[in-house]
Specification:
- By secondary structure, this protein is mainly alpha-helical.
- Among the domains are: 12-184, Rossmann fold (3-Layer(aba) Sandwich), CATH 3.40.50.300; 190-233; 860-913, Arc Repressor Mutant, subunit A, CATH 1.10.10.10.
- 63% of the residues lie in helices and 4% in strands.
- It has 49 helices and seven strands.
- It has a five-stranded parallel β-sheet, with helices on both faces. A two-stranded antiparallel ribbon has the order 6-7.
- The two termini are 60 Å apart.
- The model is unreliable at 1-6, 234-241, 286-292, 850-856 and 917-921 (pLDDT under 50).
- It comes from Streptomyces dioscori.
Amino acid sequence: MEPKDVTIVGRESEREALSAFIQAPEGRALILRGDTGVGKSALLNQITEIAARAKHHVIRAAGVEAESELPFAGLHQFLYPLLSHIERLDDNHREVFDVVFGRGEGTPPSVMTLGIAVLDLLSLAASEKPLLLVLDDGQWLDASSTDVCGFVGRRLTGSSVKLVIGLRSDIASNFDTAALTELPVNTLSPAASEQLLDMCYPGLDPRIRRLVLDEAQGNPLALLELPPYMRGHRAGRKTEETFGYTGVPLPLRLQYMYGARIGALNGAVRAELLRGALDGVGAGTTAGRVRGIRYHMTDVEEAASCGLLDLEPLSGDFVFRHPLVRSTVVQTATPNERRAAHAVLAQVHREDVERRAGHLGASTVDPDEQVAEALEAAAESATRRGGALTAVAWLTRAAELSEGHEERSRRLGDAAFIAGHAGLLDRAQQLVRSDVIAGRGESPAAVVASAYVALYEDGDVQSSRRQVVRAVEHIRDSRFLESNEVLTRLINLLLAINQYASDEASWEEAHELLGSLGDMVPSDSHIYQDAWGDVVRRGTGVQKRVQRALTSLHELEPWDVTRLGVAAYHVDTLSRYRPHLQRTVDREVETGAVATGMTMLHLIMLDQIAVGEWDEAEQTGQRCLELTMSHQHALFAHHTRAYLGLLAALRGQAERARRLQAVVDTWARPRGVGFLTQIADAIGTTAALAEGDYEAAYLHAIGITPPGSFTPYAHQASRTLLDLVEAAIHTGRTEQARVHALAAHQAGLPDVSPRLALLTYGALSMTSTDSDEADAHFDRAENHPAAGHFPFELARIRLAHGIRLRHSHGRKAARHSLTLAAETFERLGAPNWTERAQAELRATGAPAAGSPAHIAVLTWQERRIADLAAGGLTNKEIGERMHLSPRTVSSHLYRVFPKLGIASRAALRDALGKIPGDQNV
């Protein structure tokens, strides 16, 4: 992609100053001083255009380094276009020009004599029209011409002549002492830099765009020249932690900016600059050091004196004047020079596992097992602190330096495994393919990589499961004890696949397979096996096992943290680990295991939903959805949509919830991804409950599990316990509701998780026919130590308790529970549930909170049913007239009551009378 024609971006103050300079009524001189490539020439072009529009005669000249030793070479450029005017000067002035330009003999004139002659010539030329002299690269003007231009520039007042000179600030010039007015030309602001880059290179890859902006540091020339050279480049801050700073590929034009000065330095100084550059010594405004850098450049005053280095004010250390200097130092060094510098730096950082290994890897050519081991240890360290991308590079290099095939293969497998978690699925497959040996089947490491791709990219739970099962059986039957690490990965991947499939037969096969492996199965994998599969039957005691496994949280690999986090979610103890997830998710998304970061975001969102932080959960979900889509993780993208749909259903956003439900179900059901189809059914259940459509809610709920039992390996079976019970009660299925509540108690759900304890006691209280028993269960639910951690479920139980109290103990007794429920629903942002609780509260005689402005109008069918019910007809009679079942009529009425702000049929007539006649037509 070539840059488009560039107009000046930013520079408002400079352009305003140049315009005022041209419009001034008399002559003057101005110096534009700035770094190479900062845009001085563009501003000189700008002032030329301004002058041309103002009817000035413009003469341009440019200093040339090759002519900087030729006396008056620069002055000749200015005066040559005015030679026709020389004949009109007096004899003395003509003789001066003849001597200067070699057309006559005589003693060279003094600066004053020649300067006066030049002033006369310029005044004569400007008598016809104003004159503008523009000099670019004035630092290369020969000394004689510089002295004369300085003399003239100080004496233009009263004339119609203006002189503007562009100078590089990093090169000394005779103009430095000319005492002319200066206008500094600084780098572009961050906003202007982004505007210029986006204007010239629209659609640039975001990572390349960020790297160009960081490297250019507001230098327009670099912003324009770098992008074509950056495609496919992986330099930048990430590589500072792999094999030292590698620089960015610079076009010759940018290399020339500093290359000549670097090449002219003493060899020892160049070597010191190279060590500083490779170790990531800061540059320009980015002079802060990366992690662990302690290198100090010494004896480099020569480089500082020629404008390549600056002193950092706080530390007093030398830093590179601009990132382009640092890149040029690296780019102009030979491979042998770079390797030698890395070897020195490896000794400097011998106490730092990661930095030493990175420099060792870059300094070594031939296989070296000690260096490979150092890189492997560094990769493990980097992974723990969120540097999965760095770890992949180090492990790949370790494989290259391995002395034996077995070690090479293992390290490539490790690199592929981490690459898969880092979202680099293609890279993972490339790594394992590079380990293929003729005549040997697909390696277990290759199975891990390919199964990850099949699962994450397309949700293929069937073929990926078969692949993994065969690989596990092969290792088991071969008894390759040295393959335990790969075996662990295969086991955990199999459990993840089964979790998504949620298929009983697959889980039973997995239990049998893991049983045959005996002690080869790690203890953490057994936790996943019990928590991810069937928490109803295998979840007792998982809480404590998860807690023990997460005792040394900071020592675990990021994917182990998230796996245990998923287990914690299934037993509803995720909140205690969420702070760690929130602290680490950003680093994993940026430089670490991005796929693990996606799961972290899922877990954070789930806990935000559970504790009632619904606005924050929405933000987390949207962020995760963007991330999954940008990495083409179709499985995680639909997983995220499922949670967003569930959240929308909780908030009463029925249309959005059902739209997301349909998208998830359409994608997941044909693939057999039962984990997501269950969430889709849960979305339907939750949305219907919010609307008061209890018949639809019941049908969705029994699609997950039938009443009175909990479908094996259906993770939503226990989570929707209260939904099924409540839907059954409101549709007259009291027996089914009671059977389901008792089944939860008999299954020991209160011992599995605090949330399931709350749901079980709530379900028992709602379905009990004995008032004392119901009150005891309500009390047990509402006073459970963890009840406050699940505000939505607690509010639903309090709502049910309030309704029961109103009927059994009178209106006053119900107000406290109903008030708490209404306040919680309103705080959460669940308007339909808020309306329902407020209607019940009004039925107790409590002051109305005011009819919410967002109450939905009645549909035609709802209005017709409401009119008939207000007229005294029973549900059966209404159903016969409208060809509906009594249960459907009941569901419609339950939706009507909260819309009208009432709690009983007796209030229907008055409420309907307050609706404008055409509102529901």
